[in-house]
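Section 3.1 - Work completed
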Amino acid sequence: MKTTVHIISHSHWDREWYQSFEKHRMKLIELVDNILEKAENDPEFGGFFLDGQTIALDDYLEVRPEKREQVEKCVREGKIQTGPWYILQDEFLTSGEACVRNLQVGMQEAARYGAIGNVGYFPDAFGNAGQMPQVLKQAGMDAVVFGRGVKPIGPNNEVTGGQYESTYSEMMWASPDGTKLPGILFANWYNNGVEIPVDEAEAKVYWDKKLADARKFAATHQLLMMNGCDHQHCRRTLPRQSVSHGNCTRTLNLFIRISKPM
């Protein structure tokens, strides 16, 4: 059976980490400026997943208020996917009510921008709460994507023990009340499709390795590759390589079911 690889352009965004908030915000401004420029000038641009949190757009527009109309147009058209969270949720550092309100505010903000992302997103949460499918399904989410909480886990195919385990990176995640959502674990982390080479020979080596890593854990022939990493800018030129790679096709710049129209 033919394998289809879905390549998602994204950037994982910590508002403050190894640099101050304002230094990170300067990088954010450059990132969103680049997304808007590409959306306006590249008719083949499929869009950019802005890490599942609307606060990044709020931070950007505090400095670039004149860009609001352009940002809203990109969100409506699916060129930027934002939400459903206001800020990325760490499920064990806050209360259950804080988690729900984070989701409520994020969805309200995303709706004001023009469209709400329909995927619960936990790229870097330090474990996952069992009630998340219940909470997310009530909020209208269609799936959940996450980076920790089951085995395998972490970058470079690192496998560690844990309370919750799964043989595959794709699963039906069930809450204690029986609510289920389709789930995808970032078995090779949320940067498993980063830095796709432009050179065709280098690209073949790259894809041979990336596909082999993903297939170690995959339960389906639909593979998710995240083209980006921490604070990484939108690539102005994603390589337009041949879609033929053995028994494999690649779909560039597609979102997971993209955004719901408002």
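Second construct:
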Amino acid sequence: MKTNALTGGQPDIAPAAAPAAAPAADTVARLRATFNTGRTKPVAWRKQQLQALRRLLTEHEDTFAQALHTDLGKSATESHMAEIGFLVREIDHTLSHLDRWLRPKRASVPLSLMPSRAWTVREPLGVVLVIAPWNYPVNLALAPVIGALAAGNAVILKPSEVAPATSAVLAHWLPRVLDPQAVAVVEGGVPETTALLEQRFDHIFYTGNGAVGRIVMTAAARHLTPVTLELGGKSPAVVEPGTDLATAARRIALGKFMNAGQTCVAPDYVLAIGEAGAEIEAHLTQAVREMYGTDPARSNDYGRIVNERHFDRLAALLNDGRTVVGGDHDRDTRYIAPTVLADVDPDSPVMRDEIFGPILPIVRVPDLDAAIAFITERDKPLALYAFTASKRSKRRLTAETSSGGLVFGLSLLQLGALDLPFGGVGESGMGRYHGSYSLDTFSHIKAVLDKPLKPDTLGVATPPYTRGKDRILRRIT
């Protein structure tokens, strides 16, 4: 059944009672009709949409923060830093550079085509579908929408039903502040998403897991629709001896335990080299206590697991090693303490799939060679973090590993560098966005060549080739 396939056999909510195929078709048709009028193409329209979205986020930040707290237990501080504030910066960055990004770019032409001019222009694709996840249900819904609108497209947003409070806020406000003829929000679960995927889009942007990503890609293939898949994976944090392990631990813990570990780009495990393995345990314990106190359940800054199904999956992993810190959990409140596990077997369940929760295993390896082998033998991660003072190690990790992104000395916060692309490779995804890369994703870069129509130029009847220049042209054409 489609309802089972779309979630890889594990639906997050019960299917809706009635299919939504007709409304989906009607919505797509309505937005396509709008796009075909040219309404979304003027730069002024694009900027108006982005400015309106910015006002919504800033004037109603408390509304979004409350929804995020309801769905995921997020604090107002975390909601601002990782969701609302991030989006405002993305909008400001886009508005500041949009005119320059949209300028035609000149291209050279060969002698055989002279005299002529060549350049490229960006044109919007059409109607874009954005399917958002539940873990950052505002950020990961609206960041692609920002790029799609900046590129001049009409957009359908499908928020995640697993974060229902946030989905409701998005569905209520977006049609009220953005152009309702060009932007639509479709709520619902598997049937509604399936109905949308049956329609023809000009681009589909999906953030989530690989199982559903394959379903999205299969549906898109029926219409030859290009896709961007922002997936996840087991992102390692390599730690070498000789570095500042206390600072490394704090930065790893920040990236891992924000949003209770439910972050696609969070460090999934620590790959500790040599003596760093024993030392990092104590530093991670101290980092957790500095961030959340001795009882994280009472901390206002620590979130909760999104639902019971994910809680049960995570709780089953808590015994896959020696508990260094944490381990406490309560199903009634969906609480799992920030947990660090040591003496972890690389073949244990906690090391098989992306954890996507507040459990951090430490795997020990003897040297950098073993660390690189460990990484390259597995699927390419969305991010590779490395904490090392060695320039040689940095060069080797850059040259000998493949990942969506490579970050030295930090985790997670690299997303604040808006001129860097964000995206995966292999099992961790395809395509990229943020900043000008969003414009690349949601635009067609069209080649234009203009050759004057003159009787003495290439392509029309000319006298016999007798001069040297004409003989050259004859040979190369």
